[in-house]
Amino acid sequence: MSDPLVRVRGLKIGATIHPPGEPSQDVEIVKGVDFDLARGKVLGLIGESGAGKSTIGLSAMAYGRGGVRITGGEVFVNGRDILRLREGGLRKLRGAEVTYVSQSAAASFNPARRILAQVTEAAVLHGKFSRREAEARAVDLFRKLGLPDPENIGQRYPHQVSGGQLQRCMTALALCPQPDLVIFDEPTTALDVTTQIDVLKAIKDVIALTGVAAIYITHDLAVVAQIADDIMVLRHGKTVEYGSTDQIINTPREDYTKALVSVREIDHQEQPPAPPPVLSVQGVSAQYRGMDRDVLSGINVDLSPGQTLAIVGESGSGKSTLARVITGLLPPYKGRVTFDGHDLTPDQRSRPREDLRQLQMIYQMADVAMNPRQTVETIIGRPLEFYFGLKGAERRKRVVALLDQIEMGAKFLDRYPAELSGGQKQRVCIARALAADPKVIICDEVTSALDPLVADGILKLLLNLQKEAEVAYLFITHDLATVRAIADSIAVMHRGKVVRYGPKSDVLSPPFDDYTDLLLSSVPEMRLGWLEDVIAHRRMEAGGE
Amino acid sequence: MRRIPLSALIGLFITALFFLTAIFAPLIAPYGVAEVVGGVWDPPSAEHLLGTDNIGRDLLSRMIYGGRTTIFVATAATAISFITGAFLGLSAAVIGGWFDQLLSRFVDVVMAIPTLIFALVVLSVMPVTMPVLIVVMGLLDSTRVYRLSRSVAVDIEVMDYVEAARLRGEGRFWIMFREILPNALSPLVAEMGLRFIFAVLFVSTLSFLGLGVQPPDADWGGIVKENKDGIVYGIGAALWPAIAIAALAISVNLVADWVLNRTTSLKGGRG
Q: ipTM of the assembly?
């Protein structure tokens, strides 16, 4: 093989951090990473947040984001060391030879300009194509990416296309200047599973058609396995394992990689429904004020004591709204919610304190679910004081006991949320919910913002606590792997309706309704060729109709 | 402890100097505030470091006592404006709905009237005593504090931890003072520095116009008023209060800037 397109040797990246109350200090984010990327190949960078994968990806365009500096090593692109380039040389490189696709297309497009103008901008600016040529290229790319109405979609504004379509437009934007390398930074992470599969397929096809090389950054090994030729597993700024996709997935060598591959293997015995339910939603329909559309219509679900009911659906399916109805933040206009045999007052403000205590909630973003100016002791201790009147030493004792339950310990008492890691924050939120000694905890996407291994720890903790405290979970999530792991019953929601509901084994076994089938088959599997199989299967079914 | 920048240190030092002088005025001032001790507009001398004023009182003593009055009135007015403004602003954000609408529109109406003219009208019909002056200034200024604290609180009010407190069944006071206020404090404290200076300028303006602190009590605006005719004859007595006001304004602003910078760079703090 001749010279690779990208050749990275001994890459070191550092940053200066300013911890509150302490002097600034230099930290090394990436500690010496090597890799090669040949033309037309795809390298997957995978790791949890903070592993340095985005930082390494961006170094291929000699860019450090947010005060990050490349402190050592060499990055060759097309045979020259781009770290030695001056500003002018970098400008010629960026947006022409190397382009970038970010996680949030919605935040990256200028909402006030038409898509086509933005897609062709870099190509025209770098003088690679005339405007006319660039527009023709863009339309061709739109077609290759499977966008509807490729001739005219460029005339729309970013808000006039869906999230999945916008992400594909951004891929077109990156490919329009005919670059040698595209950096994809979590391009499908913000999308629903059913959308993700289309975007993933589009990206894979267009890479094959254009012969561009790509660096694909993600935290989801199953996703990258579909698209990459080689995979590099990163942790704490170091390479854990680097090899072909086949080798990483099928014969991982390092323990960390093995853990990533086998993630979500949680052992949970499904419980049959045990009436009477502790929480029962009966014929609930709800609307947001000022909108003449049902966000929820005719919802009926039951939650048995000490069990887990998973509410599954894509964004906009109404699953979080259901939580708002149950907690009383959004009174329904029809139907009722009963708790332990009695009706819950629709409006939370007029509920008795005992009902509030019995029904606790854990949020998706633990960061904003805790007051940043309160210590862990106050956060967990407040419900104890509020519901049980515990004070002083007694309260502290109970808080320490709860901290032990969430496997953290007394040394965290005086910490502020900013001093905790993502997983620890979520644990504290769990402890706060437990402090009220509730019968039901509503978990709203509690693991979606966490790295897979951390999320696994949280799920295991929740299951253990369920056994100890006999608490029932209403588990809202879009992640079917989580559902498989912990649910007893499942309700699949789509456009404000429950389309499938029952014990887990029933819901997850055929025959499926169309939507559940689509949803289930869209969950990436940790094997090579899964994407092709699913697409082929869908084509066959569509052809057979 | 994090390093305090030089500008903030200078600001802190001068501000402290002003406040200490104000507090210990009777011990520091060489003469009484209304004591006539020399001729009209005597030039500076060993006995009268800044000379004498338009009726022969020691100017330095007048300045020290005047500073005391000015700073006291401004501090008290700022305190009133922050207590009322922040309380109402937080209430409006937490209660919302018609309460918020009513209060906000009322504040808009009050703010639509130029503050100085409003104050002049009110003070011309009320007896001009120190408490009335302070309350009028404080309440007029509280409209600004209300707007700031409401807008800050509205942003915080939608955070999940406030919703969590609501779901727990917490009362409004807990939500206002335990959940929202600690997170709104930094912009409010920075604003307090600025509003204090505005209060100093405001009370000086009122006194200059004759509706503020009444003679024979001294205050900086009043001293300018009494000695302004001297400028025509080349007597600089009226300039001393101006210098004092400028020095205080700049030094307090240096401190306020530092507080503002510190809180915006704080991770997780409000931008």
A: 0.78
